[in-house]
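ZP: hey, is the L263DTV3 complex queued? I don't see it on the tracker
AM: it wasn't, my bad. submitting now with these inputs:
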Amino acid sequence: MSRLVIVSNRVALPHEQRAGGLAVAMRAALKEFGGLWFGWSGKRVRDEPSGRMHEIKDGNTTYATMDLSYEDFDGYYNGFSNRTLWPLLHFRLDLVDYRRDTYDDYRRVNSLFAEKLAKQLRPDDVVWVHDYHMIPLAQRLRELGVANRIGFFLHVPMPSSDLLAAMPNHEQLFSSLAAYDLVGFQTERDLDRFQSYVRLYRGGKVYADGRLRMQDGREFRAGAFPISIDTGMIARQAAAAVSRASVQRLRDSLGSRVLAIGVDRLDYSKGLPDRFRAFERLLESYPELHGQITYLQLAPVSRVEVPEYQALRRELEGLAGHINGRHAAPEWTPVRYVNRDFSHGVLTGFYRSADIGLVTPLRDGMNLVAKEFVASQDPEKPGVLVLSRFAGAAAEMHEALIVNPYDLDGVADALAQAHAMPMDERKERWHALHKRLQKHDITLWRRKFLEALAA
Ligand SMILES: O=P(O)(O)OC[C@H]1O[C@H](O[C@H]2O[C@H](CO)[C@@H](O)[C@H](O)[C@H]2O)[C@H](O)[C@@H](O)[C@@H]1O
Ligand SMILES: O=c1ccn([C@@H]2O[C@H](COP(=O)(O)OP(=O)(O)O)[C@@H](O)[C@H]2O)c(=O)[nH]1
């Protein structure tokens, strides 16, 4: 069997804990057969250029990671990846900050990753590159003579072609995807938008069998491969987690109140200010729920050097203070807002303790939290998922209460509906959601993508 080589900016080294769906999913995907995981070491170095390599072996997996200099990290990661591509791919043209110098940094760091990776590759390795940090990687590898199968998976949304085309140099960047054998997206809609871009802005052709042909004749394939979770493992973790002291403490602190939980990196794509406002709308529109419901928002900080993330943090602190100041009672705090990162061992217990899971991003590639929340529930008393129609997960999770996160009254009504939902209906909805997750888990995702890549 060929070796699987996974390439991503974020690598979850053994025993490392950090919020973020890509790393969680890759760890689960490598668990069965192992392979090589290649990417950034998580280290930034001063007075030294990028490129120092580290290797760690853990069971059947080898981790090969590269240090980045402060300057390169700033241009490639904080800059082009997270201030240009991230907002662009999340439909936020208003936040896109395009700079020629950070684009150059991005391309240079990708070239360096390609040089280091090319040295590690064996002829029959299957290479699977992940996410927007690494779009030009295959093109650079091809220039270095790498002829292996190379696939790419985009974890974030693919926006409408008119938005993509607003980015200077979009032709160069997005045409480089043709160097992959297969390009995967989270949903059919993302795939559809990319196909439109190829037709409308790259003069390309789209064939019914999934092949795309660029104007210059290069052909590659594209498809939709919705990512998932290790459903069985999450369920087992959740059942075990309820006896943990931290989970017990949360439960004890609630008394008889209903718990609504949100778990998100502190990112503007997650729609947290709107969610806070929707919760306040609930308290205003349904005064009988005062003192009856607690909203716990876990929001570990993310990309802390990027100014838009710093501004969001300030905004949320203000909003949480405002809602609590206005609505709290001496014995009840409506919003509990926590900027800490929790392990899955604890998080799954928190999900299971909640009656309502609140997942309301303005845009999200998939949103694994939505799936983890469902997988963690007690079948005898499952919680209700309130899910944004703009999360990739909504394309599969029809039995959730699907909401428009911009419609604060609608989200407040869905929360009230979840609060009042009879247990029979909760069970019925949960069974349907859970059944699909049992089949469409991380193993099926990995298998489907790799089979398509090998085909
Ligand atoms: O690596 P960071 O900059 O700390 O950010 C964490 C990850 O965020 C994004 O995750 C996406 O992937 C998830 C799994 O497919 C998906 O469910 C979610 O909707 C996406 O937002 C990002 O795409 C990753 O590259 C980051 O590692
Ligand atoms: O304190 C936390 C908060 C989140 N997560 C994990 O981070 C991932 C978030 O993935 P998602 O797809 O929802 O969003 P992303 O952060 O990748 O955009 C999920 O596996 C969460 O369980 C975590 O491990 N600890």
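AM: back. Residues 278 and 408 are 5 Å apart (CA to CA).
ZP: great, adding it to the tracker
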